[in-house]
Design goal:
Rossmann fold, 217 residues, two-stranded antiparallel ribbon, alpha/beta, 39% helix
């Protein structure tokens, strides 16, 4: 299926972001702790009457950026037509974004890394050395919230998990409204027993939703 025509049209500026939230989970484990935490963040979003939806990267057939650079001309990823191509319009249309990943080897999962790399297509580059760049998602009031979950109990053991999500999103023009780091959780769905972490995820969702409407209280 050739998806590029509709995607490019969606990226021309005709589709401006709305006050809704897209949650993206990067865990390979179904019904695991990342899934549970994302659900509670989105419950907080729903509590503030903000529409939302979610994407499980493990359920999408896609690959990482291949460095073809076609997006520099086409303004969207045209070198690949896969599952990520299907959700570009949802990313563009959602002013709010939630990323959730467990820690794999001191970093985000390979699924989340590949997803973030596929957002490269939203950059514009100038013909300078080194090339100056800007993001077409910037200046639109986009907000984000981040969640990372780790088996170990110290921040150093989480490594770069939060940073690997925060730095690329800020470069794209998102304002990160809050982050949650959850420790000492490993077994599938075990975080369901951690009432404090679930409440923190809920509050994080509320904070994100309120930031989209201009309510900071």
């Amino acid at each position: 299926m050739d998806l590029t025509g509709s995607i490019i049209k969606a990226n021309t500026g005709d589709l401006l972001p709305e006050n809704n939230v897209l949650g993206v989970a990067g865990s390979p484990r179904k019904n695991g702790n990342s899934d549970v935490l994302l659900k509670h963040v989105l419950k907080g979003v729903s509590h503030e009457r903000i529409q939302n939806g979610s994407v499980q990267l493990r359920d999408i057939m896609f690959q990482g950026c291949i460095g073809c650079e076609k997006c520099r001309k086409d303004k969207i990823c045209t070198g690949l037509n896969d599952g990520i191509s299907l959700i570009y319009s949802r990313i563009i249309a959602s002013k709010g974004l939630v990323l959730v990943s467990p820690t794999h080897n001191y970093n985000i999962t390979s699924w989340m890394k590949a997803f973030i790399d596929r957002l490269y297509c939203f950059y514009d580059f100038e013909n300078t050395i080194p090339r100056a760049w800007s993001s077409r998602l910037a200046g639109q009031g986009r907000k984000a919230a981040l969640v990372a979950v780790c088996e170990q109990k110290y921040k150093k053991d989480m490594g770069f998990t939060l940073e690997a999500m925060r730095i690329p999103l800020e470069a794209l023009g998102y304002q990160v409204m809050g982050e949650q780091a959850v420790f000492k959780i490993f077994h599938r769905g075990k975080v369901k027993e951690d009432a404090q972490s679930l409440q923190e995820a809920f509050v994080l969702g509320k904070k994100l939703a309120k930031s989209l409407t201009g309510d900071r209280q």
